[in-house]
Amino acid sequence: MKLHIFILCLLISAYTHIQSQTSYSYDKSGNCNGRKTISLRSSIKPGSDKIVEIFTDDIFSNIKIYPNPTKGLLKIGIEDYNFTSSIDIAIYDLKGTLLIKDKISSSTIDLDLRSYSNGIYILVLKKEEQISEWKILKTN
Prior knowledge:
Blueprint: H1 2-15, E1 16-26, E2 32-44, E3 51-56, E4 63-66, E5 73-78, E6 87-93, E7 98-104, E8 108-112, E9 119-127, E10 130-138
Antiparallel strand pairs: 1-2, 2-3, 3-4, 4-5, 5-8, 6-7, 6-9, 9-10
Protein name: Por secretion system C-terminal sorting domain-containing protein
Domain Secretion system C-terminal sorting: 65-132
Organism: Dysgonomonas macrotermitis
């Protein structure tokens, strides 16, 4: 019986991986004035090689940003959000140049990055005064 439970646990861990990262912000005096926790849950569907990553941070409880890295078409899905307030979305390059600016008005949005060169981009989601930032990797 223990062997069966052990094998079941191994199979589940092969399909799901959860990772969490917490970062803190400090004022000029060294006092902690903020904490941001991001959790990542990756899963591979049986019979598929596609990884779906579900992120959780202090602003959004369930957000999917996929595929990341992307070859150009990036999808953003926000589950369990009622959209009573608008969500602004922006993509910046590492120089700080604004490349894309839009509003999310439904639970999913598609962003086309195919015309941009390969590299790292910053996705910024803003809900009211709260800001959530994500790194996006564009490849061929």
